[in-house]
Amino acid sequence: MAIANYLYLSAILFTIGAVGVVVRRNAIVVFMCIELMLNAANLAFVTFARVNSNLDGQVVAFFTMVVAACEVVVGLAIIVTIYRSRRSVSVDDASLLKQ
Amino acid sequence: MINLALDIGKTATPESFLFYFLAPLSVLAAVGMLLVKKAVHSALLLAWVMISLAIFYIAQDALFLGIVQIVVYTGAVMMLFLFILMLVGVDSSDSLEENIKGLRLVAILSAVGFGGLLISLISRATFGRQIYGLAAANSGGNANGLAEQLFTKYVFAFEVVSALLITAALGAMVLAHSQKSKSQFTQRDLSISRFRKGSLKDAAGLPGSGVYALHNAVDVPALLPTGKAAPTSISAVLEARGDMIESSNFQLREEEEDK
Amino acid sequence: MSLLTVIGLLPLISALLIAAIPSKSTGLIKRATFIATSLIAIISISLATGFDKTSTGMQYVQSNPWISSFNINYAVGIDGISLVLILLSTILVPIVVLATWPEADGGRWGAKVFYILILILETMMIGVFAATDLFLFYVFFEAMLIPVYFLIGGFGSGNKSAAAMKFLLYSLFGGLLMLASIIGVYVIAGNQIGATFDLAKLATLQIDNKTENLLFLGFFIAFAIKAPLWPFHTWLPDAAKAASPGTSVLLLGVLDKVGTYGMIRFCIELFPDASKTFTPLIITLAVISIIYGAFMAIGQRDIKGLIAFTSISHFGFITMGIFAMTTQGMSGANLYMVNHGFSTAALFLIAGWMMMRRGSSVIADFGGLQRVTPIMAWTFFIAGMSSLALPGLSSFVSEFLVLVGTYTRYPVAAVIGTLGIVLAALYILIPIQKTLHGPIIDGNEKLTDLSLREKIAIAPVILVIVVMGFYPKPVLDLINPTAEKVVTKAGFTDPAAKVGK
Amino acid sequence: MTTSSNLLWLIALPLFSSAILILSGKRANSWGHVLATIVSASSFTIGVVEFFAMHGRSDANRAVTQKIFTWISVGSLNVDASLMLDQLSICFVLLITGVGTLIHVYSISYMSHDHDRRRFFAYLNFFIASMLLLVLGDSYLNLYVGWEGVGLASYLLIGFWNQKPAYATAAKKAFIANRIGDVGLSIAIMIAFATFGDVSFAGIKEHADEASSTQLTAIGLMLLLAACGKSAQFPLQSWLGDAMAGPTPVSALIHAATMVTAGVYLITRSNFIFDEAPIAQLMVLVVGGITLLFGAVIGMAKDDIKKALAASTMSQIGYMILATGLGPIGYAFAIMHLLTHGFFKASMFLGAGSVMHGMKDEVNMRKFGGIGKFMPFTALTFGLGYLAIIGVPPFSGFYSKDKIIETAFNAGGIKGIALGMATLLGAVITAFYMTRVVILTFFGNERWGHKDEPAESPALMLIPIGLLSIGSIAAGFIFSKGDGLVNWLQPVVNPLKEHHAEEFLPPIIVSLMTLVAVMIGLTVAILKYRGDQVAQAPEKVSVLVSAARRDLFQDEFNEAVFMRPGQSLIKILLNLDYILIDGLVRSVAATSLSAGVRLRTLQTGYVRSYALMMVIGALALVTTIWVVTA
Amino acid sequence: MLIAPSLTYSLLAPILIVLAGALIGVLVEAFLGKTHRPAIQLTISIGSLLLALQQLWQIRDSSSLTAAVNSVTIDKAGIFLQATIVLLSLAAVLLIADQENFVAQASAIPGSIEERSALEQKNQQTEIFPLFLFAVAGMMLFTIASDLITLFVALEVFSLPLYLLAGLSRRRRLLSQEAALKYFLLGAYSSAFFLFGSAFLYGYSGTISLSGISAAAGNGNDIFLLIGIIFVSVGLLFKISAVPFHSWTPDVYQGAPTPITGFMAACTKVAAFGAILRIFYVGFAQSQTQWRPIITVIAIITMLFGSLVAIAQRDVKRMLAYSSIAHAGFLLSGVVALNKDGLAASLFYLFAYGFATLAAFGIITLIRDSTGEVTDLNRWVGLGRKSPLVSAAFAFLLLSFAGIPLTAGFVGKFAIFSAAYKSGNISLVVVGVLASAIAAFFYIRVIIMIFFTDPVNNSVSVIIPSIKSKVSIVASMIISIALGIAPSLVLTTASNFANFVK
Fold first, then answer.
1. pTM as predicted
2. Could you say which of C24, C410, D165, D562 is the most buried, measured as most Cβ atoms within 10 Å of its Cβ?
């Protein structure tokens, strides 16, 4: 099996995540899709670390996890705030600002 | 410069078994994430993808990351997601009907195109270098290797990440922490304030609940069963001081009730 | 500091002083502005007296670094062409100031703002003609739009904000095209002789044909919009109709001259080859402008629209004279700029007074004014006669020079242009008949004739119109050497007479 | 060449007087007319002085010049404001100032009731100054200034009573017709400059023979166009009739005696061009011939006394133009006819003015009749003028007209015969319509329909008429005595002293033919208009008469060919400007705006569509590299 | 054996000082009573920014690739950009300190009693200050980061506080929260793109440092490089709001508290462009043939789109958002120019645009009615009559955005277009010029509304600004005006500092 298969997987997962953001309306699910994209990127990093025979990629992946965790905290806080105001977590409901 | 095709980087057979077993499953799970109605199910499917990825990490000589992926990501982050899902209502289910016209079609088409092109591009690409794997880099242990990088090469980024963590904490607090707008009054405070207020009539406080009296003060006469006021119920001292209120004011007036 | 800089700064300083006067003492503001601008006019005349007529180089030069990163200098200097235009500006401004006392009160912000804007505009007008640094010129060229914009929008009438916007956008568009060309010139200069905006140095650039043509077009379209040449003219009638008469005088009398001035100073001096290439096209446009403007003027019902279209016709003459590339054409075009400034000023100011008295700008609302207000009628008549280039009045000399100069190179254009003088008779005589002649129309019986202030304001203009008709020599002497130099430097010589001397 | 400092004064005096009268406003009401008249007389005096001075010099040294200042000097174009008085111009100077002064005197009385009399005199003086400049200018450009100046004066005077819209329109019409002529003059000057590098008469004359005939023909044709405009020649004749809207002295001075003859002056002055340009000369003949008949035909049908006289003027100028077209020999006769015509036509116009004065400004001859006995002096002087114009010997008209007819026949060949016949026919018609005018006005029944009897005009009006009548009687004889005028003018107009190649007919035959022609016209007129007439013009008339009444459809023609198409062109252009040119500008704005409005809708407010936009953007980028690397 | 890395603290000090300020701010939040917090927080913020500025001045001539191992590059351009950010932040913090614009208590549900009582008690959410300082530090780091991970971390460090700050508007809180949500989701989305691209860059070059990527260029197959450039660009283009990654901009600009919008519009642009310039000039310069056409097209689309859509806006903040999109297009010309002039021009442009933007948003905070800021342009009608000075200032800024000569905008545009022309991108210049003409349309329309239309009877008025806002607005105005008339100092400085160490 080619190592590149990991990259294909990564690309597929990234695409799924990207399209998930577009098609899902629950803000939390949308956010989860973004997490999926970050994971896909991480997979690419880890794979490339193997290809490149250095650990930089893994370090980046590690950073990504930390950063993602922080992002999750902030993001979920924002989502909760919205939920408390509107009683809804649908991103479509948050569409007053337009045009 | 070596210019080798991608397929030079071959993996060992067990790893390919693992891959061919897990990769389709994780893709399925990821797709499922988009298709299932309930957010909780999505979260579980995502957890599954993450665990699969963790296994892949481990398979690719990233033992430490694999563990962290499970512990931090799947364990902590996903739990946070679930927690918030619980908070906003676990049964809240997303209607899968699209209400922005044409969006879904375009999205799917572009996703297919996007993924297809990416895969096509990757298939055309070459790594351009000999792949030696991570055996050398991990010779001192994967965690050690990472640690060394983290604390030397990337130490500044590592330090700055702390700012991120603080921001996250601070942000969560700003949005969630409710400062009590009033300080709690103690009984003593209430009592003092009652007596400081104007006339003494407030000093006694209001009647307890369930008492059918309009007033509960020492200067107000009690009512007799007939509804008449009983002047004698008031302390003579008050009467002498002139602090007594005219008791007839408090009689129940039948004629009014008849109306 | 060069005297030029001093004169350029004086209006700005005056503006600051005027700003210090309380808005309510409008009388003081008006008088102060008039005195200040008159003084500036007098001082500016000393520019002419101290001017070395024999030299074709820049005089009163001054150059100080301004934006050193781009090698942009505050560089000013004048030759004959710019000198007469500066004089035109400085002399017209006090006249406009004196002529517009009531009109300044009628605006949105009162007399103080009006005169401050006029003074700022004066500085920019002087600057734009004095700049010998391309960038500096552009700055004045564009910045000038802003005070005019506020003058039209704030003190105009009718559909003024739309007109102001049209004016500004149109000019800005042209200006931006020119900016693209300026950048091109700057970059080319950077590659060839080192980054510079110095006009004299830029004139020495060797630019390949295609690039030169494009750069030329950038400049030319900007100037063609400014000096409105058909088909870039549609902003002018709107602006002139909406603007107050005083603003219109400065707009048509001076500002639009920047366009024709720019054609000489920049299009021809910087891009002689491209000028040559485009001359047939430009002459064609100029001829169309002459005839088209005249026809449109005949069709106007609004007196301000009429004057605007006559100006389009006149600008056609000026452009034709410039691109005829003969000394007569060039000098004539230059002289035309000055003369048109004065005759249009006269027309607009008097038309303004007529409209102010009558409360209408529709030609049909007037009638019989010669009997009611003879002095006003006379001045209007003389201004009109000047506009139709009656011999003996100033415009004739310039129009004749333009036509003669054009004929020697482009006879057909000149002949068609000459037909314009018949149309000129129509577009001037028809409104004169309708406004000054005929029975006195109801509502005009009680119109008052020119007041002393108005007489004082218009007298010098009429005087200039008459004197310049008979004795244009002093101005021609200033213009001629420079005009000849421009033609020669562009690689042209006058076509020789077929026989005789 | 001799210089003289008097020439400027000739012009400057009337010019300044005009300016003073205009500028001093009502203050000058009491003395304005006096000043103007004195100034005019002074100019005349200077003219006389100059004439005698000139007369005293030898042929070669007669011309004097005066350079005033450098007017325009650009490159090779150098035009001085400079004046030149030669044998040709002195004729005009004397005519202009002489007749002008008489008309000033006449006007003092004629205009005495007009509260704008001062302005009238200002205009008159301005006219005199311009006309003098026209004839004194030493270059085409200087001439042009005077040329337009008289146009302006004519405009102002025709429109003197411009409160009447019709009069204002007439003034405008005159100016515009003149302007069309001016186009010709402008172009002629341009061609001249391009050809000779000079615009002065002397300079061009010197090199005229070196230029190609094409250029000279072009210049000649353009000059002819100019002459047509100013002299009301076909096809630019239509303004002259309307110009009678002006006060009668104006008609006498400007539209009979002086200004309208400027075209003749121009062609005569440009003899060095026309002599080298046969095609242009031929055109001059054609124009002159057509106009003399055209004017004569119109004149037969006019009931307005001034218009009848105007038509006659047109016709007589046609004679002059025709004469100028006859080459070196014709010029002098043209000038002679010009001068004699100046006298008799002026006197007749003034006489007509006198009649109108007596008839309360009535101009319709059908409402006159039998005035002769009430206004004997007017009738007499008018009669003298009449005899002069129809060419009865020994009145002045006979001498001049006869010479033209003779020269026309002598032009040779078919051309000569055609021209001769035309001029003869003109003489017939002239005799007819002038007789008609005289009969309808001064003889026959009284048809004015009110009881106020017309009274003879005051002396101040009659004296000038009388003086002019003397001119009508004697001028012809004086000028032709010993070929005096011809010889006088010869250095200017015929330097080579050409003579008739051969005489087609002996002069005496021609004179007899002319007399016969005059008698025919006269007799027909007497037969037709003897006895009582009615005050109404007959309704049922022949096609020719109704056409002549309508000026042979000249206005209809202009209206249909120029005015209406012009008006519709303007209408089209107005729409074009708004819809197409400005529309383009507006549509750019509108397109930007609607693009903005449309693109704005991309901003749906849905975060998911924003994400989609990003995906599509990324997709586009990925596609690009996919294509690029393929 | 782990060898302790050596950090050159003096060079990192500007960032560290700001971070320290933030941390002290957090401690103040934790331990000090709320009455004194606003003043103390403001003092800390200003103090740390000034200190950072002073430190930047100290190190102005330094240049180092190894100040923090290899994570950051200290060079002239970086120092200029950092100084720009700090200066802009100083002006912004004064606007932010005017708490009138911020929610009293973010956790209170909009419209609840709790919110009302928080308002009554004049509560203040002073956490804004440390969040602000974190953002500033992140931005400063973003401009000097020289490897992908530091870039990513810096991106998040300045983004996360902004996500939060965007949601803290006092009025129209639902809109504000919505803005925060949109900003956050799309921001995270773009981060994911950035990260994905980084992975491919790493895969291509085997390193994550920009110089490493640059050095690896040309080793044959550059598909990974291209994928990497594309995806990293998406992340960065999002931050500078280039079309089609711009869509968050109008919504967030409108919904966020106006001082934050100003801060975001000015400083984020500087930081993001600083990073873009560094990445493209340093990391991708070798592969310019591939990316320059792409960025050129994006620049063109961005200029045109921003200018066109701005015409159709009725809300002044949205209009400025689209204007900022158009300006991003202009600035991208500087990126495409890929020469020293382009860099210098971009530096100047960012500086000038930053102050003009801050001043503009500062003025917007002043235009109010009884319910708060009025951003509906229809209600700005006739403002010129009510308060000529403020209107004139705003008009001046609009003219500056439009690029009328004698304003800083013009000098910037000239500089950037001449750099683009010099690099041969004439199409960019032409389109830029056209877009400027379109853009002038809406700026001028606003001026017409303000000055030439009579006020309708409404209660919009200009409040008398607090001394803090006043200082900020006046200072920004003075800088804007000075940059128009005498830009030489800043231009020369920008030119001297236009240097990336590779």
1. 0.89
2. C410
